[in-house]
Amino acid sequence: MPVLVVVGAQWGDEGKGKIIDLLTERADVVARYQGGHNAGHTVVVGMNEFILHLVPSGILHKGKKCIIGNGVVVDPAALLEEMDAMTKRGIKFDKNLLISKNAHLIMPYHKALDVASEKLKGNKKIGTTGRGIGPAYADKINRKGIRMADLLDEKTFREKLSCNTGEANFMLERFYNAPLVNQDQVYDEYQGYARRLKKYIADTTLYLSEAIAGKKKVLAEGAQGTHLDVDHGTYPFVTSSSPTAGGACTGLGIGPNTITEVLGIVKAYTTRVGSGPFPTELNDKTGELLRERGKEYGATTGRARRCGWADTLIIRHAVRVNGMTSAAITKLDVLDTLEELKICVGYKYKGKLYEEMPSELAVLEQGVPQYITMPGWKQTTIGIKKYEDLPKKARTYVEKLCKLSGVKPSIVSTGPRRDETIILERPFQTVKKR
Ligand code: GDP
Ligand code: IMO
Ligand code: MG
Predict the structure, then answer these.
(1) Does 75 sit in the ligand 2 pocket, CB within 6 Å?
(2) Domain map of the chain by residue range?
(3) How far is the centre of ligand 2, averaged over its atoms, from the C-alpha of 390 (Å)?
(4) Angle at CA 406, nearest 5°, toward 307 and 399?
(5) Annotated active-site positions, please?
(6) Ligand 2 atom 6, closest CA
(7) 104-198: in CATH 1.10.300.10
(8) CA angle 274-276-280, nearest 5°?
């Protein structure tokens, strides 16, 4: 009954899509457990690049069941657009995709409220993707959300839509001075989506429980990253869901005792999109070099990602809160040309040294990062498949980063393609002893 959870260890964009696609070969089911189309997971297969937002990154392998779990918030327009674009490229959905009946819908008023709220915040904005994620989760927690099952029941859908649009339009008009949402138009639009999505909507919790009982291998796909988690991240500069491993249980309806491995995806340096503290951020030539070599531009919004050195405080925190059993170190090749590299081991704030992740924003914003410096290897690692073929200094970097973070590496990624990978430990084999 192995369930392997894949989580981002930093602020998202660690390369989860590539690793999930790679591991799908050994899995039977790939299930997304949280987030929405704020995610952008890039998968490169041969010469083809796919950017997945809602569809699980396992879809590119034939015959694997892909699930959008109850913890995901789904904008049906975005989902259908993504499916249509992939269908044109030969990807099949009919037998492969299931959407949870309990997944909540992102409605046009969620998007309008997200955009209006950010506008009002001015320079205090979170820098959201503007996709309606926060308002959709707020409605869910506030017990007003509309679920996939409601979409299939015309009467319930109309009632809920009417109630929610009334309230949202009141806020949009009176508080935000923003354009209103037309209820009748939304109703018609969503009935169209219902007709198209109906065949995919199912009791995915039941499906997963039977799959797990039948010893099928399940890959639980997290979006975003640990430090964007609403509980464990750099609140309030976070997303509105639980990307951490616990989110896989609630977001899929599986028991914690089914989880056998938690693979943390750790980028060899750090990036962040949107606002919020980033202690090791580099606003200099090295930061620019990381952005250019790493092609660090958002897969969802196209925004330039902020770049900086690896930070063992944030990785160690991720190791703890996820119960990470091993790490995939990604994008090592991006560091190939550097003369020297730094790894953050603490923050100094008002004379005090912090060696574990603080939750006070002031420490994260104003703390001075304390670094160890390591020599660069200054030779290409692109596409290396065997650990022993890595330059000695690159191995030392990986080992130091992992040791200081308290996690063992199981994968090292040396390029965006499937085969540009070093596998140190096969997934679905490190089953926890009980
Ligand atoms: P995700 O959101 O965690 O799935 O990550 P993204 O797909 O948003 O961003 C990661 C980017 O890095 C994508 O463009 C990947 O194709 C690319 N990538 C993944 N692993 C590697 C790697 O090891 N080396 C390089 N150079 N690029 C990689
Ligand atoms: P993947 O899955 C990086 C960030 C946004 C913003 C904050 C809140 O590709 O790693 P939201 O729209 O979720 O309310 O925005 O979270 N964010 C991401 N950053 N990668 C992502 O997903 C992200 N999804 C949301 O930039 O700072
Ligand atoms: Mg991404």
Answers:
(1) no
(2) 3-90+203-423, 104-198
(3) 32
(4) 70
(5) 13, 41
(6) 128
(7) yes
(8) 100
Q: Whose CA is nearest to atom 10 of ligand 1?
A: 15
Of 257, 268, 263, which Cα lies nearest the Cα of 244? 263
Amino acid at 168: A
Ligand nearest to the CA of 301: 2
Å from CA of 364 to ligand 1 middle? 26
**Ligand 2 atom nearest 276 alpha carbon:** 27
Instruction: Determine if ligand 2 sits within 6 Å of the CB of residue 117.
Output: no
What is the full per-residue pLDDT of the chain (434 aa) written as tens digits? 699 999 999 999 999 999 999 999 999 999 999 999 999 999 999 999 999 999 999 999 999 999 999 999 999 999 999 999 999 999 999 999 999 999 999 999 999 999 999 999 999 999 999 999 999 999 999 999 999 999 999 999 999 999 999 999 999 999 999 999 999 999 999 999 999 999 999 999 999 999 999 999 999 999 999 999 999 999 999 999 999 999 999 999 999 999 999 999 999 999 999 999 999 999 999 999 999 999 999 888 889 999 999 999 999 999 999 999 999 999 999 999 999 999 999 999 999 999 999 999 999 999 999 999 999 999 999 999 999 999 999 999 999 999 999 999 999 999 999 999 999 998 887 444 43
Determine the residue of 23, 42, 224, 291 to mutate for testing ligand 1's pocket, defined as the one with the most ligand atoms within 8 A of the Cβ atom.
42
Using CA atoms, how far residue 229 sits from 201, 226, 317, in Å, is: 27, 5, 12
Phi and psi angles of residue 45, each rounded to the nearest 5 degrees, phi first = -120, 110
For ligand 2, whether the C-beta of 265 sits within 6 Å is no
Q: What is the atom index within ligand 2 of the atom nearest the CA of 301?
A: 26
Indicate the class that CATH gives domain 3-90+203-423.
alpha beta
Closest ligand 2 atom number to CA of residue 114: 14
Q: What is the pTM of this model?
A: 0.97
Find out whether the beta carbon of 414 lies less than 6 Å from any atom of ligand 1.
yes
